[in-house]
Amino acid sequence: MRTPSPSWPSSNFSSCASCNPSSSGSPAGGRCALRLEIRSKRFAGREVIRGLSLAAAPGEFLALVGPSGCGKTTALTIAAGLDRDFDGTLDFGGPEPVLGCVFQTPRLLPWRTVRQNVALVLPKARRSDGTAERWLAAMGLEAVADEFPGRLSGGMARRVALARAFAVEPGLLLMDEPFVSLDEPTAQRMRALLTTMLERSPATVLFVTHNLREAIQLADRILVMAPGPTRVAAEVPLKTPRALRDDALVERVRAELLARPDPAFRLLA
Amino acid sequence: MRTPSPSWPSSNFSSCASCNPSSSGSPAGGRCALRLEIRSKRFAGREVIRGLSLAAAPGEFLALVGPSGCGKTTALTIAAGLDRDFDGTLDFGGPEPVLGCVFQTPRLLPWRTVRQNVALVLPKARRSDGTAERWLAAMGLEAVADEFPGRLSGGMARRVALARAFAVEPGLLLMDEPFVSLDEPTAQRMRALLTTMLERSPATVLFVTHNLREAIQLADRILVMAPGPTRVAAEVPLKTPRALRDDALVERVRAELLARPDPAFRLLA
Amino acid sequence: ADRPAVTIGVLKFGTVSWELDVIRHHRLDEAAGFELKLMELASGQAAQIALQGGAVDMIASDWLWVARQRAAGADLTFIPHSAAVGALMVPATSPIASVADLKGRRIGVAGTPIDKSWLLLKALARDQYALDLDAAATPVFAAPPLLNQKAATGELDAVLNFWPYAARLQAAGMRTVIGVDGMMRDLGLSAQVPAVGFVFHEGWARANPAALDAFVAASRKAKAIMAQSDAEWDRLRPLMKAEDEATWAALRDQFRAGIPQRWTEEEREAAARLYGLMAKLGGRELVGNAMALPDGTFWPGVRF
Amino acid sequence: MRWRRLAPVLSLALLVGLWAVAAELAASRSLPGPAAVLSVLIREAADGALFHHLGITLARMAAAFVIAMSIGSALGILLGRSATADRLFGLWLTVFLNIPALVVIVLAYVWFGLTEAAAVGAVAVNKIPNVVVVLREGTRAIDEQYVEMARTFRMARSDVLRHVLLPQLTPYFAAAARSGLALIWKIVLVVELLGRSDGVGFQIHLYFQMFDVAGILAYTVAFVAVVQLLELCVLQPVEQRLTRWRPVRAEA
Amino acid sequence: MRWRRLAPVLSLALLVGLWAVAAELAASRSLPGPAAVLSVLIREAADGALFHHLGITLARMAAAFVIAMSIGSALGILLGRSATADRLFGLWLTVFLNIPALVVIVLAYVWFGLTEAAAVGAVAVNKIPNVVVVLREGTRAIDEQYVEMARTFRMARSDVLRHVLLPQLTPYFAAAARSGLALIWKIVLVVELLGRSDGVGFQIHLYFQMFDVAGILAYTVAFVAVVQLLELCVLQPVEQRLTRWRPVRAEA
Ligand SMILES: Nc1ncnc2c1ncn2[C@@H]1O[C@H](COP(=O)(O)OP(=O)(O)OP(=O)(O)O)[C@@H](O)[C@H]1O
Ligand SMILES: Nc1ncnc2c1ncn2[C@@H]1O[C@H](COP(=O)(O)OP(=O)(O)OP(=O)(O)O)[C@@H](O)[C@H]1O
Ligand SMILES: [Mg+2]
Ligand SMILES: [Mg+2]
Fold first, then answer.
1. Chain-chain contact of E98 with D185 (C-beta, under 8 angstroms)
2. Which of A240, B225, B267, C252 is 20 to 30 A from residue C40's alpha carbon, by CA?
């Protein structure tokens, strides 16, 4: 069963090249940075994903939203190449990109300091050139660089995980609800950081969130997932340049989406 | 150094007895269900809390909001009686209440099934009387009752943690960002469940959240925490009955709070 | 300086090491034209392993062991060292006067149920008193030092131990009910059969006949000194580890009594008969598949 | 699936094959081949000696094992959880861990007589410090977040032990049990050698006196077979059941 | 703080006191008191025998320990991570775990002569399966979420081993090292008994033949002192450093 791919009502936001920092053309055309086809994924017999098809252009930012337990994390795990036990294909239209990943939980090594947690995922040459420290400082964590993760608050650990994913300068960035358990100002700072980083070194992003406002603020395209076995139930391209998306716009788009007649959108709020 | 306890500008919401399901009087008067005074709390010499004073009337719902890493979880841990290594006092104005707790991470025992995770915190007599199953069903988890937690999605694990805390019928309920990583409709259902539960068996609630809308929707009083070393920087009583707080009201109060001149509120968005 | 070397694996403080010390002290090896080298080891098993592993030329062991090894294909052979044997000891005040009184008693036995002395004692009890000691008494098998300790505390009614340990018990005031030599006599084995000897590979003996002869000569000279000189035993004191004067004297006397006087065809035949008896009593567990004494168990080159 | 069932057979065949080759090459009485050992095994089994001695040794081991595991793990958990107890008795542990088996066995026999109880006790005393060390290490590594959860919900002490602590100690129990069985076996051999009149250790000693390695190996093989049976029918199924919750991992 | 420094002293005093009382009550040559043992210790130390034998035994132990720990942990981690390897060699492990020490020692001596290498090798072979069992158990219990993280970031194999796997195995290494030291000590005693002319095992056995328990205990005490020193100066500081990251836990 494949997503019926309806032709979406053309958005009322104007399209702009700067939304796609790599600007190698429109998301639809060009070489695909990520093409993931999951015909079926099962856990112990139970089907979790059926007919999921994801394609992201280089530098495209895809936001996945969908009900709890539908299979978003599973899809991300497959995209990361961690789980090969599925029926389908994964390719990057070229050599494997450098991967950055923010897992649903921070997954910091408890026995390594915060600094080491960031440095260890870097290539050997870059481990002590200040990259880790720079990213930690950007996250407001310079004071705890030598602490062990067990001594951090939930939000601090999450920011270390963000620093780790950003520090590798990923070509493909997988983020599973990266900004939860952060207070709103901090979360906003993190989003701004992400945007800046993407502008400087463009990456294809797969971004899972339950926060529709966040998705609208950041994504080039929002994929609404169906309840399990999941697939893409609806797709929303967002064409306004990210820089022009202010609170009012976000609220307006959100209201517009929630009002759509398609049943997929009823699962959003 | 103690919180200066300024007299707050009287709120423009009307007071209503039904906000306090136990209704043993106004929150300010009567026997205190929770009185926590933390003159100072240090970790390895670093002061994390200074002059924090919390008092909740029986059945009162306190929401704590504040910047990441300020000390909210630490305060909750102390309130739970887990950490006695602080300078200050904790009392319940009577015998110790039954405690329910939703930790910042789900903390399910990975080697026990979902059902057992809920049942094991119950008194022996109630472990197999269907309580666990009822709460799991309420969370939409009846299908995974016999799974191990490692096989759940992040949101599902969180709901199990909620079921566990609700199942004990707590007199004091501690919740540390309980509704993160849930999609909005599920989170709303969980909030409704919490409200219903509190109506049926009233409990004093200490509720940490980064979601100001959620705090406005649920709390009797919002405590705005200062950045570390933390204390209560500002307090907002909410007098509209919970049932009457619709989206529009929540947005209105939120805007009103964010517009306040007090610097504490600038940390909210 | 070009004297051939003979390396012997011995128990430090063991009875054999006394004799070897006499050889070295009086330079009897030099006189006989060989060089005696010692490898000190902590147990009899260590010595056996050393011989099998080629680390030593010669060790001290009993000929039953040699016979069985030969039966299994090893080319080991034996020359006598000592005929001293163990004894059945009881406390001075014990009512046990003869083997017949062992009925219902706890008997400590050094080693295992196929220990030679125990088999002889059982045979004797059966032949002369119609007593099945396995059933009628309670044998307790344990390590020799442990048994001596138990005898002292009275936990055992009688102890059948190897001679150096029996000598200690005697010195401590215990009484001999019967010695193993007495058992053999009572069973009709007249000649004195040396139980312990020097054991070596036939191949080594053939390759080093001069060294072997020289060693035998030196050994006999040493024994002669030990038989006559009390002063020599005074010198040996530190090696003997005797707790007191009485033990020292008992060890000396028993060692002297055990010096083999003859090693002729007669003794060898007696040994063969004893082996036959053992094979009957101990069965395959003791002697392996050879029911008769294998040829060559006793090195033919040495007799006196 | 087929591979799974085939592997152990292949493994056994390979081991026996290597043994046969080594024996052939050594061509020495000190390493008899599988055939020679098997024939001794059959002979000993036929006259009942094998079952008699093996049975007795296994009974002693079972008793010592149960005693050592229960006392050892109780002490190990205690020392692991209480820094005070550890500071007070850490030294004792080092002492008891390093008293030579010989000393314990001799003292046991001297004090308690040449009895079954002394033998089993001596074996247990030799093993207990080992269990303590392993479980103390495990207890120190326990994840506190679950203990905190249990304390928050005021779970009973016995429930905390059963549902929070013990499940985390499973691998340590498994390690202590497996290496413990082997250690107890090795010590029971010495115990039987020094003061018992039956059992495999006694029997092996007899063979050793005769330098009959085939006899020693026959008893070794019989014992190993029993342990492997235990491994397949008890240890592995139990362990698998207790660690069912672990995520299935792709072969690395 | 004061209590912390006092506890070990108190602990030692208590142990020696109990020993003295027990010896007094037993009033037997089979349990000499601390004073008697100390006088033997001083005598042996004065004539240099103590240091000679202890030094040799410690050198043998050190060699065997290093060999056993490195080979054993490599195999243990391999068997723990690869189900195939485990299926193929699990049986071998049971076999080698349960071969009586005696057999290995005799074969080593008979094959390789009564050499230092044979002695050390025999001890190592006795200990390796033990290390394998403990580390296999530990490796099976490894938390996969960190391994997944490392794989996602394409960390090098050596880095995964060093930063992800080994830190989780620390308690297993500690358990294997502590119980391993004790086991190696016990086996080295047998090895020295069966084929060396020096070392503590040799010496202890001589004393046993004389039933001189004071002599045996003197050497035991000397060895235990060395181990306790090692414990205090090496094992504990290293372990503390490696587990610094664990949350400090309030006394339960
Ligand atoms: N290792 C596993 N074994 C068995 N089932 C699993 C496993 N991992 C996930 N599942 C199941 O797969 C489904 C999808 O899980 P997944 O974690 O992908 O959900 P999700 O969309 O990320 O949800 P959430 O928003 O709650 O994180 C769930 O029903 C879950 O129970
Ligand atoms: N065990 C510990 N050891 C040392 N420092 C700690 C420990 N636990 C917490 N801290 C420190 O205490 C401060 C407060 O932590 P806490 O977890 O209470 O923050 P929080 O308000 O809950 O933050 P968040 O919203 O991110 O969860 C942080 O700076 C943290 O680094
Ligand atoms: Mg998820
Ligand atoms: Mg927190």
1. yes
2. C252
Q: Is residue B6 one of the residues assigned to a domain? A: no
The residue whose CA is least distant from atom 26 of ligand 1 is B155
Contact assessment for residue B36 and residue B53, using Cβ atoms and an 8 Å cutoff: yes
In this structure, what token pair is assigned to residue D12? 């056994």
CA B215 – ligand 3 centroid, Å: 24
Report which DSSP code applies to A18. Answer: G
Is A5 inside a domain boundary?
Answer: no
3-state secondary structure of B53: strand
> Taking the model in full, what pTM does it have?
0.89
ipTM for the complex? Answer: 0.87
pLDDT for B21 beyond 70: no
Q: Residue A1 falls within a domain, yes or no?
A: no
Q: b or e along A199-221 (b: 16 or more beta carbons within 10 Å of the residue's beta carbon)?
A: eeebbbbbbbbbbbebbbbbbbb
Nearest to E84 by CA among D249, A86, D232: D249
Subunits in contact with chain A (3 or more CB pairs closer than 8 Å): B, D, E
Cα C40-C42-C47 angle, rounded to 5 deg = 70
DSSP notation for A197-220: HHHHS--EEEEE-S-HHHHHHH-S
- Cα–Cα distance for residue pair C12/C46, rounded to 1 Å: 12
Nearest to B36 by CA among B50, B51, B48, B54: B54
Instruction: Give the bridge partners for B236, in sequence order.
Output: B222
> Phi and psi of A174, rounded to 5°?
-105, 125
> E strands within A80-237?
87-91, 99-102, 172-176, 204-208, 221-225, 232-237
Point out the residue among A99, A105, A112 whose CB comes nearest to the CB of E153: A99
Q: Is C62 left (phi over 0), alpha (psi -120 to 50) or beta?
A: beta
Tell me how many domains chain B contains. 1
How many whole angstroms separate alpha carbon B221 and alpha carbon A104?
31
Residues D60-70, mean pLDDT to the nearest whole number? 95
Q: In the structure encoding, which two tokens stand for residue C180, read together?
A: 């193993």
Quote the CA–CA distance of E144 and B249 in Å, as a whole number: 46
Q: How far apart are the first and last CA of chain A?
A: 26
CA E135 – CA D172 distance, rounded (Å):
10
Chains D and C touch (3+ CB pairs under 8 A): yes
Structure confidence at residue E249 (pLDDT) = 61
Distance CA C27, CA C38 (A): 14
Alpha carbon nearest to ligand 2 atom 1, residue:
A151
Give the three-class secondary structure for C37.
strand
Domains of chain E, CATH where assigned: 38-243 (1.10.3720.10)
Pocket lining for ligand 2, CB < 6 angstroms: A 151-156, 181; B 43-44, 48, 68-74, 104, 228; E 247
CATH number at residue B220: 3.40.50.300
Q: Where are the alpha helices (DSSP H) in chain B?
A: 72-79, 114-119, 131-138, 154-167, 184-200, 212-218, 247-258
Sheet of strand B46-56, all strands in order from the earlier edge strand to the far edge: B46-56, B34-43, B87-91
Domain range for B214 is 14-266
Q: What are the pLDDT digits (tens) for E64-100?
A: 999 999 999 999 999 999 988 998 898 899 999 988 8
Contact C85, C302 (CB under 8 A): no
- B68 and A186: CB-CB below 8 Å? yes
pLDDT of residue C213: 93
Task: Classify residue B166: in a domain, yes or no.
Answer: yes
User: Could you tell me the distance, in angstroms and rounded to a whole number, from the CA of residue A228 to the centre of ligand 1?
Assistant: 9
Strands B204-208 and B172-176 come out as parallel
B80 Cβ contact list (under 8 Å, min separation 6): B99, B101, B174, D152
**pLDDT range class, residue C68, cuts 50, 70, 90:** confident
Token couple for C132: 């099945």
